[in-house]
Each structure stands twice: as structure tokens, then as C-alpha cells.
Automatic annotation (TrEMBL):
Subunit-structure text: Homodimer.
GO MF, one example: 2-succinyl-5-enolpyruvyl-6-hydroxy-3-cyclohexene-1-carboxylic-acid synthase activity
Family to which this protein belongs: Belongs to the TPP enzyme family. MenD subfamily.
Protein name: 2-succinyl-5-enolpyruvyl-6-hydroxy-3-cyclohexene-1-carboxylate synthase
Function comment: Catalyzes the thiamine diphosphate-dependent decarboxylation of 2-oxoglutarate and the subsequent addition of the resulting succinic semialdehyde-thiamine pyrophosphate anion to isochorismate to yield 2-succinyl-5-enolpyruvyl-6-hydroxy-3-cyclohexene-1-carboxylate (SEPHCHC).
Required co-factors: thiamine diphosphate; Mg(2+); Mn(2+)
HAMAP family in the cross-refs: MenD (MF_01659)
Matches recorded under InterPro entries: MenaQ_synth_MenD, THDP-binding, Thiamin_PyroP_enz_TPP-bd_dom
Reaction(s) the record says it catalyses: isochorismate + 2-oxoglutarate + H(+) = 5-enolpyruvoyl-6-hydroxy-2-succinyl-cyclohex-3-ene-1-carboxylate + CO2
Cofactor comment text: Binds 1 thiamine pyrophosphate per subunit.
Keywords: Magnesium, Manganese, Menaquinone biosynthesis, Metal-binding, Thiamine pyrophosphate, Transferase
Length: 552
């Protein structure tokens, strides 16, 4: 057996023994040993994509939904560079990703050899760990090294406490294909008793015990840990819960879904200063919420890994691996005040949305309401997730996800497809037209590839809608060209190129029917950017006027 085949066979086998179930491959020559080893491994689900960027984001979506490492494999050169955006997102959002890049051997580097670049620590600090595996050799001791390395890579990606991407760079000398000879200088097997090395996890940390208080608030942001336990504890303590949609805590009687508008009202924010705020995950959608956090006298951040804690407002007074929220004696006036304001704002918002026609925030609200229990909704990182944050009513029974680590618009079609392939149940996506066009290659699926049950709802406002809500909109002369960026693309033709089923929704009454079906399909909803900006202004004015009346 040639060394390249031996390394690939052992490495893939050990990763499977550690728990790997899904591998995404972008085709290439130098990565042939890995590709053939994966193809021959019946315990793996294989996904092949022609575009490395789409491949890496597909793996990101799989790992994000399952919580287990997914692997992505490519050839050498710029193929590996195209993984970089997905690696960054995985690093920022804590997604366990195994990045296996094939490489030329050292003697070809720096010589001008074809498809050879410097791949050592290619992704910089975006990875949790990097290893240059070394050119495989036919000598004793290699199997123990490869299996030990594979186990360490898998466990470092998984965490616990700090999951994220791990990069293994694998230089191969030719020959790259199996030679028909199975002999090797030592046994290649890893034994019958599971992984080569087992990771023993430490016991749960001792939680920080807070003094009892009724005037507390639980804030749930992106990537929040142990959400249900903390939401239940906040409920027992009489605390309101301010949860971003993808945080997973927007359900139940304590969920305050209109906090963006409440905290944007100075008199409400001043009158509802808490004694303590406990933050799970990383909040980042609402500027009023972030401004309010800066003024909190006690802000406790829950971070499973104390080397990396989210604190974008620099307002944390304590950071703990876990927190115990105690039940305090007293009345529920604090919670009732939040709920009265929330109910007033919600009624005003719904009235505006119901009269707004086919608007983007109404689409977001109505889409969530229309989804069946057990559904997954993957949301775009720009306006779609913000529309959900401002318009979504509390509800149970769905899983909502978004790529809010680096909050890019790239790779979202592929990430949604990966998340759908990792989800047991129907899946949906809500993304913008620029995100869709940025990753239209994600629709390219070969006839033998696993196909997700995913309905992608694309909001088409012919450009970058979020800029109409930002200060750039005031720069009228260059705005449309350099910020609005109209594209004029007919999305129906884009979907036709890949034979993806397509529906155009022209009235929101058509949405429930358009969502029906199975497999990969696209629903387009066309909106107007300027009209959308006006709807957002009406939402803000109506909600805050209603809250003022409720406070009077």
C-alpha cells in the first residue's frame, strides 16, 4: 500500500470511530487519497460540491445543526483559500468543523510548482487548532501518530466548552491512487474498543449563585448555552426574557418580543433599569438593547469557556461558566410592567404589519407563524434576522438558526442546505436576494447527492435593503449605486438553471400554499426597499406611542 492511501484510510477510519458522520468533498487531484477513502467508508454520508466555498458552508450548516463536527476536504492551492470565510464563521460562532486540506509535499513548495501555495496556518487565528500532518512514510509508528492526531483534531473541534474549526494540512507525494497492494509495515487497524484515545470530560462547573432579586432580566443572544434551563429559572424568579430569535428563548409567558422598541424609548429604558442582567450567548441585533446593557449596574455573562466570553458592550461585571438564578420573595410588579408594555407594543406592531401589504417584517412574522411544529428556519444574517427580531411573536416548536458569528451574507444557501440535511424534519430558509445570488452555486447538486427538504424563501428588493435603514441612505446621490446595488436579476431564471422548483408569491395570502412541498425549492417574494424603510418607521412610531400611552 502506498503511504498516501495508508494515511487517508487510517485517518478517515479514526475520525469515524470518534463520531464523524458527514463529509463534504470538493473534487481535486491532490486530495484523491482522502476522497477515495471517504467514498469507500460506508459509515459516512458523503456530499460532493463543485465549489469549495459552497462545500465549506454546507459542512458548516451540518455541524451547526447537529452540534457534531462535520469534515470538509479539498485539494491544494486556492481551493483551500476558498474555505476561509466558512472557517471564520465557524470560529466566531463556535461551530465544530474539521478542515482537511490536501497539499503538495515540502520539496515542491516555494518552487513555482503548479497549484502550490503556503497553506501552513492558512486560516490564522480563526481555527482552534492547526496541525501540519507531514508526508506519510512507510515505517512503524505512523499508525499511532495518525490515529492519535485524528482523535485530538475531532475532540478539539467538538470542545467541550469551546467548539470550533480545526485545520489539518495533509501533504501527499505521488502515487495518489491505490496500487492494489494491501501490505504495510504494521497493522493499520485501531482495535475493537472505540477511538484510539478517549476524552474524559470534567464535571460541570460550580455555578455562581446570585443574590435574590425580582428586578432581574435574562438576555439570550446568538449561540446561547443551556437556554431552556435558564429560561425556566428566569420564569421562576419572575424575570422577563429578552431573546433574539436564533437565541432559542423566545417562548412562554415571560418572553418580551418587542424589547427592541421598548428599550428604544428613553423613558421606558430609564424606568426599567434592572438590578442585574444575565446574558447568554452574544446579543447583537438591537442597538437599543446594547445601549441599555451598557447602563446595567450588574451584568453577568455566562460563558462555558472562560478564555472566550462575549461582551460586545464591554459592560460585563462578572463572567461565569454557569449561574444559579434564585427565586426571590416579593410581588410581580416588575414582570407585569414589562408584560403590559410588551402587549401594548405588540398590538400596535401587529396593526401596522397587518395593514402594510407585502412588507418584509410582515413576511418574517407570518412565515414563523405558518411553520409546522418541528420545523427548522435558517435565517439570513442581515435584514431577515432583524425583521424576525422586531416582528416575530413568541412561539414554541421550531428551531431557528442564523450565521451570526461573523454575520456575513456569503454561503447562506449552502449553510441552510447543510442545516436542513442535519435536521430531522421540514426545513425552511429566509434570506435576501444578495445573499441568494452570492451563493447561487449552492443550488448545484449532482444526481447522487443527498437532497435536503428545504424551502428557501428569498426576499427580493433588488439590492441591499439594510442600507436603506442606515445613515448611508441620507447620501442620496451615490446611494443607489454603491449601497443600494440594484442587480436586476430574474431569480426564476437562476433557479431554472439548476432545475430547482420555483414559486413567485405576489400576495402574502399565497404564502402557506407556496411553502408546501418536499425537497429543495425556492419561493421568491418581491418587495420595495423604500416602502420597507417606511414600514419600519411606522412600526417604531406606533410601538413607542402605544407604550407611552400604557405608561401614562
Amino acid at each position: 500500500m502506498n503511504p498516501a492511501t495508508a494515511l487517508a484510510t487510517v485517518l478517515i477510519d479514526e475520525l469515524v470511530r470518534c463520531g464523524l458522520t458527514d463529509v463534504v468533498i470538493a473534487p481535486g487531484s491532490r486530495s484523491a487519497p482522502l476522497a477515495l477513502a471517504v467514498h469507500a467508508e460506508s459509515r459516512l454520508r458523503l456530499h460532493v460540491r463543485v465549489d469549495e466555498r459552497s462545500a465549506s458552508f454546507l459542512a458548516l450548516g451540518l455541524a451547526k445543526r447537529t452540534g457534531r463536527p462535520a469534515a470538509v476536504i479539498c485539494s491544494s492551492g486556492t481551493a483551500a483559500a476558498n474555505f476561509h470565510p466558512a472557517v471564520i464563521e465557524a470560529g466566531e460562532s463556535g461551530v465544530p468543523l474539521l478542515v482537511l486540506t490536501a497539499d503538495r509535499p515540502p520539496e515542491l513548495r516555494g518552487t513555482g510548482a503548479n497549484q502550490t501555495i503556503d497553506q501552513l496556518k492558512l486560516y490564522g487565528t480563526a481555527t482552534r487548532w492547526f496541525a501540519e500532518v507531514g508526508v506519510p512514510e512507510d515505517r512503524p509508528g505512523q499508525v499511532a501518530y495518525w490515529r492519535s492526531l485524528a482523535g485530538r483534531a475531532y475532540q478539539r473541534a467538538l470542545g467541550p466548552g469551546d467548539p470550533g474549526p480545526v485545520h489539518l494540512n495533509l501533504p501527499f507525494r505521488e502515487p495518489l491512487l491505490p496500487d492494489g497492494d494491501d501490505s504495510w509495515c504494521e497493522p493499520l487497524g485501531g482495535g475493537p474498543n472505540g477511538p484510539w484515545a478517549r476524552l474524559r470530560v470534567a464535571p460541570p462547573p460550580v455555578a455562581l449563585h446570585l443574590p435574590p432579586t425580582r428586578r432581574g432580566v435574562l438576555v439570550v443572544g446568538d449561540g446561547a448555552p443551556n437556554v431552556r434551563r435558564y429560561v425556566a429559572a428566569a420564569g421562576m424568579a419572575g424575570w422577563p426574557v429578552l431573546s433574539e430569535p436564533q437565541g432559542g428563548g423566545r417562548y412562554g409567558d415571560h418572553a418580551v418580543s418587542t424589547y427592541h422598541f421598548l428599550l428604544g424609548l428613553p423613558e421606558f429604558a430609564a424606568a426599567h433599569a434592572p438590578d442585574v442582567v444575565v446574558t447568554l450567548g452574544r446579543p447583537g441585533l438591537s442597538r437599543p438593547l446594547l445601549s441599555w446593557l451598557r447602563r446595567a449596574p450588574e451584568h453577568i455573562v455566562v460563558a462555558p469557556d472562560l478564555n472566550r466570553w462575549p461582551d460586545p458592550t464591554r459592560s460585563a461585571t462578572q463572567v461565569a461558566e454557569a449561574v444559579e438564578i434564585p427565586v426571590a420573595a416579593g410581588d410581580d410588579d416588575w414582570l407585569h410592567a414589562w408584560r403590559r408594555a410588551d402587549q401594548a407594543a405588540r398590538a400596535a406592531l401587529d396593526e401596522v404589519l397587518d395593514s402594510s401589504g407585502l412588507s418584509e417584517p410582515r413576511l418574517a412574522r407570518d412565515l414563523v407563524d405558518a411553520l409546522p411544529n418541528g420545523a427548522l428556519l435558517f435565517c439570513g444574517s442581515s435584514m431577515p434576522i432583524r425583521d424576525l427580531d422586531q416582528a416575530m411573536r413568541p412561539r414554541r416548536g421550531i428551531r431557528l438558526m442564523a450565521s451570526r458569528g461573523a454575520s456575513g451574507i456569503d454561503g447562506l444557501v449552502s449553510t441552510a442546505m447543510g442545516a436542513a440535511l442535519g435536521h430531522q424534519g421540514p426545513s425552511y430558509g429566509l434570506i435576501g436576494d444578495l445573499s441568494f445570488l452570492h451563493d447561487q452555486n449552492g443550488l448545484v447538486l449532482g444526481p447522487r447527492e443527498p437532497r435536503p427538504d428545504l424551502c428557501l424563501v428569498v426576499v427580493n428588493n433588488d439590492g441591499g435593503g439594510i442600507f436603506s435603514l442606515l445613515p448611508q441612505a441620507a447620501v442620496r446621490d451615490p446611494f443607489e449605486r454603491v449601497f443600494g446595488t440594484p442587480h436586476g436579476v430574474d431569480l426564476g431564471y437562476v433557479t431554472a438553471a439548476t432545475r430547482t422548483p420555483y414559486t413567485l408569491v405576489q400576495d402574502l395570502s399565497e404564502l402557506p400554499k407556496a411553502l408546501r412541498g418536499e425537497g429543495l425549492r425556492v419561493v421568491e417574494v418581491r418587495t420595495d426597499r423604500e416602502a420597507n424603510a417606511l414600514v419600519h418607521e411606522r412600526m417604531k412610531d406606533a410601538a413607542q406611542e402605544a407604550v407611552r400611552a400604557a405608561l401614562a
